Amino acid sequence: MGARTLMKIAIVGGGFYGTFLAHHLGPKHEVTLFEQSKELMNRSAIFNQSRLHAGFHYPRCLRTIAQTNEGYPRFVAEFGAFLRDIPRNVYAIRRDGKSRFAELKKNLAPYPTRFRETTAPAALKNPEEYEAFLEVDEKLILLDRLRAHLVAGLKATVVTGAEAIEIHSTTGAVKFRDGTVRKFDRVINATFTNPNLGLPIESGFHFAYELAAMVCLDSASGGESAITIIDGEYVSLYPNYEGQDTLSSVRFTPFVRPTNRMELEDAWRRRDQIAKDEKVQEKILEDGRRYLELDSVKNAHLWIAPKVKLRENFQSGAPSEVRSSGKVISVFCGKLDSVYSVLDQVRGLLGEPKA
Length: 355
Description:
Blueprint: E1 8-12, H1 16-25, E2 30-35, E3 51-52, H2 62-79, E4 83-84, E5 88-94, H3 101-108, E6 115-117, E7 130-136, E8 139-141, H4 143-152, E9 157-160, E10 164-168, E11 173-176, E12 181-183, E13 186-189, E14 207-218, E15 225-230, E16 235-239, E17 244-249, E18 254-256, H5 261-269, H6 271-277, H7 280-291, E19 301-310, E20 321-325, E21 328-332, H8 339-349
Parallel strand pairs: 1-2, 1-13, 2-9, 5-15, 13-21
Antiparallel strand pairs: 3-8, 4-8, 5-7, 6-7, 10-11, 11-12, 14-17, 14-18, 14-19, 15-16, 16-17, 20-21
């Protein structure tokens, strides 16, 4: 006799978090995963820096450090086949930045995070402007392969082209753009840009919205090195899963800052033209050249994705958070390896033991 189905659950939002939750909850529950696009994990989930974090990237946000350090070993254990080591992965701490090396060491001290002091990367300009260089074990997530693995292994019903426009916390009813209404025992809202759907106003999140761009370019190191400059309006150069590098700029990667979700979605539809008009690629490359040797740039193009941040952590961190009301569990999606913190909280709200 098969395992008993505990609950009929809707997961709204088929990005990384929604697909991951369906992957873990599907074997035990009757799960339906709804995604408004034609395929799963096709926006922010796939067009990002592909970094498996270990707490260095947001040195002033203790919640982000805690979540990524909790999730890092679990991510490696579950998805190690979809990770790649970066032999020379360096964080460069600016003397004029917002964080000091001593502060970073203090904030990371409770965790088994490994780093060693090293010399300046050859591609870094003006090394005397830096306090320290740390070689770390953060990895590259092969997101294209991971997406294929998660989607192929889902034990859940997947419905694409289904945009939820209302979620009722008292009844568990979800209304879709085409007018259909379906009821569930629990509704997990894992939409990246609309996690307030289904929450009462007083329980909602407060967001800052962005359209964010990175420049993809042929890698001078063959994907063997990464440079992340912290902590302030600097740049990062990191391998991606397509064999190039991604260059991001704190100053120019956010190139549209809408005031609400509707403006964000409107900007998303016009993203390529806006980026062209604003010369976003040129600005990111120019900013990158202030800090890095980028004399020969080949096959450059943009990756663009919508981005949502908690307003209270807008400048210093990117933690995940879970809130609930009635039959609704709403997830704010942070870094990819923070998903395990969310999974544990969701399981707790469903009455399941922590894995």
